[in-house]
Structure to design on (240 residues):
């Protein structure tokens, strides 16, 4: 049964029917129990498991996301980059759905991801569009880049958003060794991004100035003063 279901799910995934593959897995849990599904997930190729988890719909719970183990999830997460999704929207969605499904196991998932090759990169990609806030938090314990006093430090309860703020807080305060591998890269990216943005702004200003010069009316040239020609009578000239 296990091998047959794995093959069926793999075929459905190759055909693009991710929902059908998830339904087959969920049906197993409903008919044979959660442990049967966990056993199948253990045997599924990470790329197939990833395909199912990436399709997480926030409007409903996913049995697969609820039952996947830290080790199974970590194997799938580290190959998410193969999708070349530069927005990392799907990565954040599936990590949030699994890491924060049960607060007592969040640390287990974080550690499992970090232990895999490519795990640090997964955290970096997850936080990639928050590089400035994470870098600021590393220094001042607050995500507000305008605050930098000790009294501005935030507690976990203040950032329990089950999203990037909570994960960043957990990494810094409960998984410091992992955080030290993540935030310096984000700081470097933040500096490079700001440099590119400043250069782009400079070029846009130069282009705007050039367009203004091209559209400005040409100055009117001053008319030359023509002196009247005085005709001298030859007879008068000889008299002189």
């Amino acid at each position: 049964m296990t091998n047959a279901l794995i093959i069926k799910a793999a075929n459905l995934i190759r055909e693009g029917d991710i929902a059908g593959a998830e339904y087959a897995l969920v049906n197993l849990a409903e008919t044979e129990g959660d442990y049967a599904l966990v056993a199948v997930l253990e045997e599924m190729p990470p790329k197939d498991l990833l395909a199912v988890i990436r399709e997480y719909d926030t409007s409903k719970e996913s049995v697969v996301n609820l039952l996947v183990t830290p080790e199974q999830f970590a194997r799938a997460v580290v190959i998410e980059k193969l999708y070349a999704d530069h927005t990392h929207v799907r990565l954040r969605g599936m990590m949030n759905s699994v890491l924060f499904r049960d607060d007592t196991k969040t640390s287990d998932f974080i550690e499992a991801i970090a232990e895999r090759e490519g795990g640090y990169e997964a955290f970096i990609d997850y936080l990639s569009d928050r590089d400035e806030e994470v870098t600021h938090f590393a220094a001042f314990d607050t995500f507000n880049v305008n605050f930098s006093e000790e009294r501005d430090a935030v507690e976990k309860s203040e950032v329990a958003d089950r999203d990037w703020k909570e994960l960043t807080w957990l990494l810094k305060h409960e998984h410091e060794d992992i955080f030290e591998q993540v935030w310096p890269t984000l700081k470097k990216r933040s500096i490079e991004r700001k440099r590119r943005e400043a250069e782009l702004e400079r070029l846009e200003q130069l282009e705007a100035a050039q367009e203004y010069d091209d559209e400005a009316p040409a100055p009117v040239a001053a008319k030359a003063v023509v002196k009247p020609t005085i005709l001298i009578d030859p007879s008068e000239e000889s008299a002189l």
